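fold-stage: in
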Amino acid sequence: RNGQRAGLLDRLSYQGSSFPEVVCGAPSIYLDFARSKLDAKIGVAAQNCYKVAKGAFTGEISPAMIKDCGVGWVILGHSERRHVFGESDELIGQKVAHALESGLGVIACIGEKLDEREAGITEKVVFEQTKVIADNVKDWSKVVLAYEPVWAIGTGKTASPQQAQEVHDKLRQWIKANVSEAVASSVRIIYGGSVTGATCKELASQKDVDGFLVGGASLKPEFVEIINAKA
């Protein structure tokens, strides 16, 4: 389970049929194994990467290394990277820029902590996080935003469908005002935070929830229900 994540991004056309785009986020030492074992229609993502191509950065992995494994995605800015490992908005922005320049797709995570939601500053927090990401993006077709309220990750608590929709809608409005209307209408904004087979249908029914970033439930049979939630 440690570090295992799977993101359902959206539906795409695959071999003439509509198929949910599924990306498995595997720990770095299993990237090659995951890519070799999974069906080609399922993508694979690294859970992190560094901001430069090479150098004396013991223990880090670069986008070039990730691509060497045949992997096309990377998750950046996850709350555990921010709040456990102390990654700053600035560092995450630099990672986003380098990953995109290297040809990887980026699943960029944003989200507020419980005290920030209770203080009424959710929008301020997620807008600041999104701005640093947006400042480092040239091609939005390679970017998926993942809204994960920190208080709902691994806690069993899930933002209500209305809470998720409210933040997703506000994010889309921010992108429209600060990036472009075209990007606002096309960018995929997915929700993460204790998504389960029991909660996915109602969450998926929300207008601005385009898919999910799934943690523990991705290792259970109910993951199939989550994949098909927007069917």
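fold-stage: in (second)
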Amino acid sequence: MAPQPEHDGSDVHVELNAEHEHGSDIIANMTKAPRVKYITFYEDSESIPGKRTAVWELDKTNHRNIVRSPVLMRELWLQMWHDIQPGAKSKFVTKAKRGPLRDADCYWDYGKACCAWQEYCEYRYSFGDVHLGQSCRLRNTSANMLLQYI
């Protein structure tokens, strides 16, 4: 279970080899922060040799419009990008950390009076930016960030 927004991995809950009875639900017995929306991943690459199964549940997301969810699109894009990498070390993309991948993922942290994710984002005003958050953009050096997901 991982937070939906960008996160540093401190709030990721992992349970391996969960017991499952055929015909019943798997209930995650994990503590959730009340104000955080999570994605719960159920992934299996060992039950059927050569096959993979993944079920992703997004908290508080309207199921009718789920394909419009930027969180789902980010995870789906990362998984597809991971799958085409010849040197991938695992069957599924890691959930340990989610940093910003696009300019839209960078935002202004009003408490610190700077762009959040300082290692990946920087303040770079461009004509037409209406508020501070629009001026937070990915640093040019963040292209290597994708390599951590292989």
